Amino acid sequence: MPTTIDRPDTIERPGIITPSPLGLPGWDEWEDVRAGADISGPWIVILYNDDWHSFDEVIEILCRATGCTEERATEIAFEVDTKGRAICYDGSREECERVAAIIATIRLQVETDKA
């Protein structure tokens, strides 16, 4: 029997509890972030959208953390803004954890995962 979280912004479905506090699609509504992505490393860093950081802040931290160009950082920021999340880096686990830690210094939500 699924556990019910007593919060008005939680949707319960059989076997799935889907919180959507940010107004983003529920986990079951998101397509796999890896679909169609050009991934060459064994691990990825996923960056999530929020309503608090400006495009300039996101672009600056992406350039600093990943070493990508401003143009590439802008593409990633636009994808995050339109899709709710995007892969911003791929590489070894250690590299991905380093990149995620740098991005998290400005309180952006990121996670590392196996590619």
What does this structure look like?
It is a single chain. This protein is α+β, with helices and mostly antiparallel strands. It has a domain at 41-115: Ribosomal protein L7/L12, C-terminal domain/Adaptor protein ClpS (Ribosomal Protein L30, Chain: A). 33% of the residues lie in helices and 23% in strands. It has 3 helices and 5 strands; from the N terminus they run βββααβαβ. It has helices spanning 55-66, 70-83, 93-104; strands at 10-13, 16-19, 43-48, 85-91, 110-114. The strands form 2 sheets. A 3-stranded antiparallel sheet has the order 4-3-5. A two-stranded antiparallel sheet has the order 1-2. A hairpin with a 2-residue loop joins strand 1 (10-13) and strand 2 (16-19). Helix 1 (55-66) packs across helix 2 (70-83) and helix 1 (55-66) packs antiparallel against helix 3 (93-104). It starts with 9 loop residues before the first strand and ends with a strand. Mean pLDDT is 82; it is low at 1-21.
What is the secondary structure topology, with strand pairs?
Elements lengths: L9 E4 L2 E4 L23 E6 L6 H12 L3 H14 L1 E7 L1 H12 L5 E5 L1
Antiparallel strand pairs: 1-2, 3-4, 3-5
Helix pairs in contact: 1-2, 1-3
Write a compact overview of the structure shown:
The chain is an alpha+beta fold. It has helices at 55-66, 70-83, 93-104, and strands spanning 10-13, 16-19, 43-48, 85-91, 110-114.
Mean pLDDT rating: 82
Choose one word for the global shape.
Answer: globular
Count of beta strands = 5
**What is the overall number of helices?**
3
CATH topology of the domain at 41-115: Ribosomal Protein L30, Chain: A
Q: Spatial order of the strands in the main sheet?
A: 4-3-5
- The CATH superfamily of the domain at 41-115 bears the name Ribosomal protein L7/L12, C-terminal domain/Adaptor protein ClpS
Helix fraction bin: 25-40%
Q: Cα distance, first to last residue?
A: 31 Å
What's the CATH C level of the domain at 41-115?
Answer: Alpha Beta
